[in-house]
Design brief:
By secondary structure, the protein is of the alpha+beta class. The protein has 12 helices and 19 strands. The strands form 7 sheets. A 6-stranded mixed beta sheet has the order 16-8-3-4-5-17, sandwiched between helices. Strands 11-10-14 form a 3-stranded antiparallel beta sheet, with helices on one face. It has a two-stranded antiparallel sheet with strand order 1-2. This is LCP family protein required for cell wall assembly.
């Protein structure tokens, strides 16, 4: 069941979770901050995204959430009207893991091509089978109902699949489409990003006058741009990126030397850049900017907090700041391709599976001390 509300983008939610308290407690504006939180809590699109074993039991009866916290974040790419490809793909799958100490946060990117057993989903008439993990969202999405109901069903099958293969249960979940990223970054006035290798865009072009032109990507034919427009190239180096540039950079895969692992890293870096920008005093101490940020993405996402009040998340994670976000890569960032019936999949090695087991068991910090190769560059 999905309830339609307005406002409060996912990254505004991350702003509140990861940074607001650190400033408002010292700045004497806690009451004002709670006003923004409460306003946001009654403004966003809410849905029941987690069902069955995938959903953790409610752990909050007061101000503090007991134990480790796992949130499932999914970025979707809806194909443009009139394109030769249809449907909604879960191009970004991230587990946000906070240990029971509530003083650290880990972003674990799940490879979209990971070969897994997707369970049957009667609601969509899906019998189950071995597929790439991003197919789970697509198969769950294929139900009758509104767009919001379709996306909620897609998330249900994806979270159930992840629970079956990792054992991880989720305290909350969020779906955001790529326009949501752009609107929040625009509200922030851009973000600071470092391009670690020259990369050609798969979605963005530049015309003869140097102006950016939005295209779209076809798996079969590559980037699709108007005549006279050439693909935009991200040159190596650090700079302030606009919403259009930052979002495009975080979506590139095929022109990177490490393919999807590079894209995962850049998506994680973008999340961290958004949180860092959103938690600066220039934003946190300006209620006008905070309100603009809360309203930025509008209808771009669906959020399920598992029945836990947003203010409880805020209180529980008050010790986590942007610099406490640790970026994690599966397979230590090395491509591990397997071919099944002529189709290329990504396989997770035993160490990666042990890393996910550690996240489920609440011992991820210890695992990373012993296996630092799983920590990705943060910039």
């Amino acid at each position: 069941m999905v309830t339609k509300r307005r406002g409060d983008p996912l990254w505004a939610r991350l702003l509140l979770i990861f940074g607001a308290v650190l400033v408002v407690l010292s700045g004497g504006t806690l009451v004002a901050a709670h006003t923004v939180i409460n306003r946001a809590s009654t403004a966003f699109t809410q849905g029941s995204l987690l069902e069955g074993d995938a959903a953790a039991q409610d752990g909050a009866s007061g101000n503090n959430i007991d134990g480790a916290v796992n949130l499932l974040l999914v970025g979707i790419d809806a194909r443009p009207p009139g394109s030769s490809e249809t449907g909604v793909l879960s191009d970004t799958i991230i587990i946000l893991h906070i240990p029971e100490t509530h003083d650290q946060a880990y972003l674990i990117s799940i490879p979209r091509d990971w070969l897994v057993e997707v369970p049957a989903y009667e609601k969509a008439g899906f019998p189950g089978g071995s597929y790439k993990i991003n197919s789970a969202f697509s198969y769950g999405y294929n139900v009758q109902g509104s767009e919001l109901e379709k996306r909620a069903s897609g998330m249900t099958l994806l979270s159930t699949t992840l629970n079956k293969v990792t054992g991880i249960r989720f305290n909350g979940a969020a779906i955001i489409d790529f326009s949501g990223f752009a609107s929040v970054i625009h509200a922030l006035g851009g973000v600071d990003m470092c391009v670690d290798e020259t990369a050609e865009s798969a979605h963005l072009g530049v015309d003869a006058d140097g102006k950016l032109v939005q295209g779209w990507h076809s798996e079969a034919a590559g980037i699709q741009l108007p005549p006279g427009v050439t693909p935009f190239v991200h040159e190596k180096g650090c700079r302030k990126m606009s919403a259009t540039e930052a979002l495009d950079y975080a979506r590139i895969r095929k022109s990177l030397s490490d393919g999807d692992y590079g894209r995962q890293r850049h998506q994680q870096q973008l999340i961290k850049a958004i949180v860092k920008q959103a938690t600066t005093r220039g934003v946190l101490t300006d209620l006008g900017k905070l309100n603009n940020l809360v309203k930025a993405a509008g209808d771009a996402f669906v959020l399920d907090t598992g029945g836990i009040p947003p203010a409880d998340f805020l209180f529980t994670l008050k010790g986590v700041a942007a610099n406490d976000l640790t970026l994690i890569k599966t397979n230590a960032g090395n491509v591990n391709t397997v071919i099944v019936d002529g189709i290329a999949y990504e396989d997770l090695d035993d160490k990666s599976l042990a890393m996910l087991d550690a996240a489920e068991a609440g011992t991820l910090g210890t695992f990373l001390i012993e296996n630092p190769q799983f920590i990705a560059r943060s910039s």
